[in-house]
Amino acid sequence: MGIAEHFHISPFFRTQCKRLILLFTLALTLLQGQNTPYFDGSRAMELLEAQCAFGPRYPGSAAHDSTAQYFEKFLKPLADELKIYPTTVINPQTNQPVRLVNLLARFTPEAPDHIMFLAHWDTREIAEKDPDPIRQKQPILGANDGASGVAILLALAEILKAYPPNMGVDLLLVDGEDMGLHTQMETWGLGTKAVAHQLPRPYPRYAICLDMVGDAELDLPMEPYSVRQAPELVAWVWSIGEQLGYTQFRRELGPAVYDDHRVLYLNTGIPAIDIIDFHYPNAETNYWHTQADTPDKCSAESLEAVGTVVTTLIYLESEQYNK
């Protein structure tokens, strides 16, 4: 995932978000009779482990190429339309050109109204936060930071194939998110920046980014940029989480994170939010950008919580679109 920033949000946004949460909680209560397909956290965990089996998937590595091929093979029979966007960027870590691959799986693409879910699939080439100086120069496996959000999108693709939505749903796997330099904000989210203006028009009505959502100690406060960019959507998503009984979705502000949702918004204007647990696994211990970011630190229960919330959102939207 991208870099965290210091961020102060105005009382206006806090008040607005609280009001919107109440509104959408009522709406969800009225719609709870709708049927939503089951999201299987165990299946998502399998898909997380399948990605990690390739090893560190940083751009320029053999594992990166193999993983891109795996995604294409996985998504092609599921999506109504699969678009692949290869591009070349300069790697901020090496100042050398490197190839990226973004993939867009579209469901019901002919619909005039679309929503989008995105996650980055690349992993970081260095582990600069690792406590061992020798291991800091080695690439991370990226079980949570890379594989977790993508695992949910892949599981969603299987659901969307089995239960076609009435509206357009786009799943975007972005590359080159995690090559950035901590001193240069613009060096993060390079895949999203590259693909932003290549996306089919009209743009989706909104976008939800999933990043670091597999943490076994999952804790999901509201990300401040998200509240600024799309307060109604944040309120809607967190209300669904609350109504479904997932206490991981907390009505408090967490760290501001310059992530793919921010890059997408700045380059397209698409209202975009981030579902993210930046404190991995908690405020006292850090696995982010270390060699400890491995599948055993993730859980099917966490993936199922986030996956169920976004699945519920999709089919509530789809049902409303059909009326």
Structure, explained:
With about 325 residues, the chain is an alpha/beta fold. The protein has a single domain, classed as Zn peptidases (Aminopeptidase, 3-Layer(aba) Sandwich). About 40% of the residues lie in helices and about 20% in strands. It is built from nine helices and ten strands. The strands form three sheets. The protein has a six-stranded mixed beta sheet with strand order 2-3-5-4-6-10, with helices on both faces. A two-stranded antiparallel sheet has the order 1-9. A hairpin with a 6-residue loop joins strand 2 (about 80-90) and strand 3 (about 95-105). The longest helix has 23 residues, at about 300-320. The termini are far apart. The model has no long low-confidence stretch (mean pLDDT about 90).
Task: Indicate the topology.
Elements: E1 3-5, H1 11-31, H2 41-52, H3 62-75, E2 81-90, E3 97-107, E4 114-120, H4 143-162, E5 168-174, H5 190-195, E6 207-211, E7 220-222, H6 224-229, H7 231-243, E8 249-253, E9 256-258, H8 260-268, E10 272-276, H9 300-322
In short:
This protein has nine helices and ten strands.
Question: At the third CATH level, what is the topology name?
Answer: Aminopeptidase
Q: Which blocks of ≥5 consecutive residues have pLDDT under 50?
A: none
Number of helical elements: 9
User: What's the CATH H-level homologous superfamily?
Assistant: Zn peptidases
User: How many E-type strands?
Assistant: 10
Overall number of domains: 1
Distance separating the two termini:
38 Å
Largest sheet: spatial strand order: 2-3-5-4-6-10
